[in-house]
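Supplementary Note 3. Input sequence used for the single-chain structure prediction.
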Amino acid sequence: MVKDCVTVWDSCLHVIRRNVNGQSFKTWFEPIRPIRLENNALTIQVPNKFFYEWLEEHYVSLLKMSIRKELGDKGRLEYQILSSNHRQARNEEAQKAADVATVPKVANNNGVNPGTIDTNSIKNPFIIPGIKKLKIESQLKPN
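The predicted structure, written as discrete structure tokens, is reproduced below.
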């Protein structure tokens, strides 16, 4: 039976899920995507370098155990850190989807769009009426 990266990673996730709490699983393991499986090395994609470092520091033994259970003693895990270009492309796709779902703003009775703030009517809370700008000479000047 030929294993593919998705099947192997799903099996690893099953083992991992039983050994960590639900919030940790959702935070640290759900965002991971399997990329490829070559020569007993499973490559997974993580969102950033911090993510990779956290996994290596806190979950390396659990990851090793699950990989070896699926791929044998020669099984390895390799990381691929998602580059900023991939992240930017994914954010642009999400923004396009959000733009499609956005309802155009309709003017209300005042001629101001809902959700906007009229900044002309907001007073500066740091200005106290009646206080003038004073110039105070430093007492540290030598005479």
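Strands lie at 33-38, 41-46, 76-81. Residues 119 and 125 are 13 Å apart (CA to CA).
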